[in-house]
Amino acid sequence: MSRSALPVTSADPSKAPDEYGAAEASIAEFADVLALLDTTSAGLTSAEASRRLAGYGPNAVRSHRVSAAAVLARQLKSAILALLAVTAAISFFLGDRNDAVIIGIILTASIGLGFTNEYRAERASAALHSQVRHTAVTLRDGFATEVDVADLVPGDVLRLTLGSVVPADLRLVAVNGLECDESMLSGESLPAPKSLSPLPPGSAQADLVNCAFMGTVVRAGTADGVVIATGNHAEFGRIAAALGQKHPETDFQIGLRKFSMLLLKVALALVSMILIINLVLERPVIESLLFALAIAVGITPQLLPAVVSSSLASGSRQLAKHKVLVKRLVCIEDLGDLDVLVTDKTGTLTNGQITFTHALTPDGLADDRVLRYGLLATESRPERAAQIGPGANPMDAALWQASDSERGLVAGFTTLGIRPFDHERRMTSALVRGPSASSPEVVVKGAPEVLLDRCLDVSTAAHRTLAALFADGSRVVAVAAKSAPGLTQITAEDEATLTLVGFLVFLDEPKAAAKASLKELNALGIAVKVATGDNAQVAEKVCRDLGLDSGGTLLGAEIDAMDDQSLIENAQLATIFARVSPEQKARVVRLLRRRGRAVGFLGDGVNDALALHAADVGISVDTATDVAKDAADVLLLEKDLGVLATGVSEGRRIFANTIKYVLMGTSSNFGNMFSAAAASAVLPFLPMLPSQILLNNLLYDSSQLTIPTDHVDTEQLQAPSHWNIAFIRKFMLTFGPISSLFDFMTFAVMLGIFHAGPELFRTGWFVESLATQTLIIFAIRTRRTPFFRSRPSAALVISTAAVMAIGVALTVSPWADDLGFTALPLDFFVALVLMVAVYLVFVEFAKKMFYSEPVHPTSHERVRGTMHRIHRRASRFSTPLPLPRTQ
After folding, report:
1. Bridge partners, residue 786, by sequence
2. 460 near 359, Cβ under 8 Å?
3. I want to staple 639 with a disulfide (CB 3.0 to 4.6 A). Which of 216, 366, 371, 621 is the partner?
4. Catalytic residue among 339, 344, 608, 633, which?
5. How would you label 182-212 residue by residue, b for 16+ Cβ within 10 Å and e otherwise?
6. Secondary-structure percent of the chain, ordered helix, strand, coil, rounded to 5
């Protein structure tokens, strides 16, 4: 691609002009860069920006479009469907068209239902994605304007603040302590400091200190810069475009895959056994092969993909109503997995509306001088109000939202330099000169615990004042100053030997709805813990007001002093982690996960990004900083713990209903197919024709498509459930033989009482098998007594009854002869009712015994997918969600 100057005056705005590369921009003087981009330090006009946008296209690397082809491709990646397709092809070429048609119907139903549900859910998710916007502050028409990052074009002049994700490649024009996390590009874990000096030609990308790159994160300081490349032409854009969009598997998907492999192994074993038996008995090879393949298909729950997609789609629609956005449908199940939630305090437990209340001297007296110094040590100014947003300090915003008379306190003062806030120092410093002062002053404001240690002769009265404010639940910022003759630039050494000026007091009331939300989460078995950079007393006061029982508080300094084992023990008990740094939050989350807990983290600031990455489920809100939104799996379009509780319940409901289908399918399918295999070895004819086996399974599976609508018992929502292949295997080997036992009873009735020939025998077993397979769902769907203590959904009852009626009707329909059926005597139905009743009672007794003996997962299953979680974390780092999504 050519790297010449931009032909921005091209008469054809639909033709995208070449963009200016970071390597070229880094070696040029800034004035030359502006000239080549045909822009000025005051930015572009709105008209010119619109014209350039038409030429360049949106500043997007990846779009959030819903691809019907991609959704269809995902439906085909199923081992179960692959088995069906192979069986259909073999049946067709061996001349058994009936089997091929029935399997084709099953395939079409499974793929069609799965595609329809997932496509609808993806479109609903895309609609929610369109509500989540990333914005940047740029100069348009000479004014600071907040615009969607998708609308940025080369030549725009931007401002970067702490927590910003750089939305395009920039050549920096002004830098104030700027440091960027460029690990996603360079692999270097330490933030890269930035400066303005032009570089020598041939400098490596890591050395381009006067450029900021798309997707990197501002870890400290502020800067202004001009956009030199957007979208796929930016450094990261080229990398991302080549990476593809493959997502790592979640626990839910891994469980499905392992379950499918278990069924395939059982199917292969049965097929081999049946073929060997029939060949030994010298039966026709083709007939034996078709029967064996029908058994293999019969043991698999063919509509499992459709049931899963129906459940997830239903869940996504429910969550959409409650303004919960999951980045992928399978993340819904991850939400249900949670049993620990670590959350920030501001905006979650409190209203998030920080208001300035008063300024106090160390002795606790009101004094405007304290407010003046506080205003001087802010990074934002009222004339740049557009910058007061997610990336700005909310306390600074609260100060500048004071009355006009208070803003007049800083009239005549000149700011000579700023040392911006960062989460390591937890301070902001300013070098200022008063209207009549002979020398400048250093003014510092920050966390009281940090700042008081840098002050000289802090009085006992100051400590008493501070303690009283904290006990009252107020948020407090300390202000200090000192004279600095001859100083022109602030360094770390200048933030010492200060004189305490006083305290700025802020209030953030507990959220009224938070108390009820905490009770909801407690009812779901989720332990809520609070991680905050605020003072411990303030956090404890908020938790007390909201009725959150505290198991103790750990301070950041205490966390640093503990080794991992000690911290694991203490973190399990503690409820509050106060004055913690981003690294300490992430460490706590990682160690809680090490105890086998499924940990969610809810945060919205740049200081929450590390913990969001470390959690099993990262949760943020649409008003969060870009870096927090990008690190999250789930976005709440409303910052409310009640909304999160709804999401957790929905995830657990989906998993519970999916497992109902799995347990029913594996037990009854295994039992019936084992009965067929055993009967084929002793009967002089096949116990059921291949087409009848397939038809039986089609009807039976169709009745279960309403499982996603089923009610879930309260106790199933009170704790997370996980895939446990050992449990599924034991369930299959316990209830499968019970099903087989009643199949053998049916064989005895048909042969001993009705002296049935092949057609009558097959018809009788077809009806009995269909009845027991479909009705068993009412026992398996709950650990309670069915109907009396756990009522199924009306849709499930209707679909089950309808399928049984269809099964009986087929035996007397005009197609009965073609299907190999004959009419059954009325006496058979009396015997059928008795056998089914005894069967269901027997299952109830077996169920109570089965659940009284806990089944533990294997050691491999207890690992909980450690490696795939590492890949999920890595995939978040490699996908720069601040890059806009176009619809």
Report:
1. 790
2. no
3. 621
4. 344
5. bebbeeeeebbebeeebbeeebeeeebbbbb
6. 55, 15, 35
Q: Tens of pLDDT along 269-288?
A: 877 887 888 778 777 777 77
- Taking the C-alpha atoms of residue 831 and residue 768, their distance in angstroms, rounded to an integer, is 10
Catalytic-residue membership of 344: yes
Name the nearest CA neighbour of 217 among 605, 579, 600.
605
- Phi, psi dihedrals of residue 369, rounded to the nearest 5°: -60, -35
Contacts of 229 (CB under 8 A, 6+ apart): 19, 20, 21, 22, 154, 168, 169, 214, 235, 237
Q: Could you give the maximum distance between any two Cα atoms of the chain, in Å?
A: 117
Place of tokens 């397939």: 694
How far apart CA 818 and CA 396 sit, in angstroms, is 81
The CA distances from residue 427 to 91, 402, 449, 585, 605, in Å, are 75, 21, 11, 19, 17
Distance separating alpha carbons of residues 500 and 496, to the nearest angstrom: 11
**Sign of the CA dihedral 586, 588, 591, 593?**
negative
Closest listed residue to residue 82, CA positions, set 273, 263, 271 = 263
Phi, psi of 218 (to 5 degrees): -75, 115
For residue 56 the two structure tokens come to 């360049």
Dihedral over alpha carbons 374, 380, 383, 389 (to 10 degrees)? -130
Pairing between β-strand 617-621 and β-strand 599-602 as defined by DSSP bridges: parallel
User: What is the C-alpha to C-alpha distance for residues 78 and 303, in angstroms, rounded to an integer?
Assistant: 11
Question: Model pTM greater than 0.70?
Answer: no
User: In the structure encoding, which two tokens stand for residue 133, read together?
Assistant: 């916007």
pLDDT digits (tens, 9 = 90+) for 58-83: 887 655 567 778 777 777 776 666 76
pLDDT in tens, 841-867: 999 999 989 988 665 544 444 444 433
Q: What would the two tokens of residue 585 be? A: 């939050």
Residues 178 and 172 sit within 8 Å (Cβ to Cβ):
yes
DSSP-derived secondary structure for 69-80: HHHHHHHT--HH
